[in-house]
Design brief:
alpha/beta; Rossmann fold; 8-stranded mixed sheet; two-stranded antiparallel ribbon
Length: about 280
């Protein structure tokens, strides 16, 4: 592994719209700002090395704990409507714009479920005004096999018991091949291992929406997709990316779900840096 900057301590932490957020600023005037949306069942503190890459490239970064995650309020893994995630993302963008000079470009960066939130916003009727988007291992379809009874239970419970939580069956070995990162994930008490029934149905509907409306995305997108991802289906990512005009798709051969935590993540960071330079 080369050129790994390690995690960066936030310049400041704050609360935005009730949600916990971390801000990272470069030494000089930032070229722009990147808003980072993390994946399901984790939190923004796991993206401090990604923030370091962004700051080294001369950009500012704002990351936040999605509602129901990390240090933000809400039942773990629960959301009543997916639109709540979109509204929270809008609040983060407004706060991010206040951190950089007027007219400075903004980029949205999402991982897994954060990529779903990002892409759902971009494919919507009122897409955010941004320069570009970067998505890693988008959660656009499950490759992980879920027993049929769990799917049926989630569908029924979404109406009758929307906060019903079931084990999400994620294994750290499916996230990354990096043993140290696996151990970090196991020890991280801000992560959790359940999925609620309403979140399942709302996220599934969001996936269907992005698949049907991907051609509406008009900003440049960079796709960083683990080719050996056993959780989020890489084939669905390719299908959706093919519908997005000018999408830059990177098949990261041999990498699992968390490409920013993989053994060879220096290669992923190099792609991230190139995407920022071209924005």
């Amino acid at each position: 592994m080369t050129d790994l900057p390690g995690p960066l301590t936030p310049t400041q932490t704050s609360t935005i719209g009730g949600l916990y957020a971390e801000v990272f600023m470069p030494a000089g005037t930032p070229k722009g700002i990147v808003v980072i949306t993390h994946g399901y069942a984790e939190h923004c503190g796991r993206y401090r090395e990604v923030a370091h890459v962004i700051v080294k490239a001369g950009w500012a970064a704002l990351s936040y704990d999605v509602r129901g995650h990390g240090q933000s309020p809400g039942e773990r893994g629960y959301i009543d409507r997916f639109d709540t995630y979109l509204n929270d993302l809008s609040a983060m963008q407004a706060a991010a714009r206040a951190l950089v000079p007027d007219g400075a470009p903004m980029i949205l960066l999402g991982h897994s479920h954060g990529s779903l939130i990002t892409l759902r916003a971009l494919a919507g009727d009122q897409p955010p005004t941004i320069k570009a988007a970067i998505v890693s291992s988008p959660y656009l379809a499950l490759k992980l096999v879920v027993p049929g009874y769990k799917k049926v239970l989630a569908q029924v419970a979404s109406r009758l018991a929307p906060k019903l939580a079931q084990p999400n069956s994620l294994r750290v070995e499916d996230l990354t091949a990096d043993r140290a990162k696996q151990a970090e994930r196991v020890a991280d008490k801000l992560c959790f291992d359940v999925a609620t029934s309403r979140w399942y149905t709302e996220s599934t509907a969001a996936q269907d929406y992005v698949l049907a409306n991907a051609s509406r995305i008009k900003v440049p997108t960079t796709w960083l997709v683990g080719g050996a991802d056993p959780i989020a289906d890489p084939a669905r990512s390719r299908t959706v990316a093919d519908k997005v005009e000018g999408a830059s798709y990177h098949d990261l051969v041999g990498m699992k779900h968390e490409v920013f935590n993989e053994v060879d993540r220096g290669k992923v960071f190099a792609e991230l840096t190139r995407a920022l330079a071209s924005a």
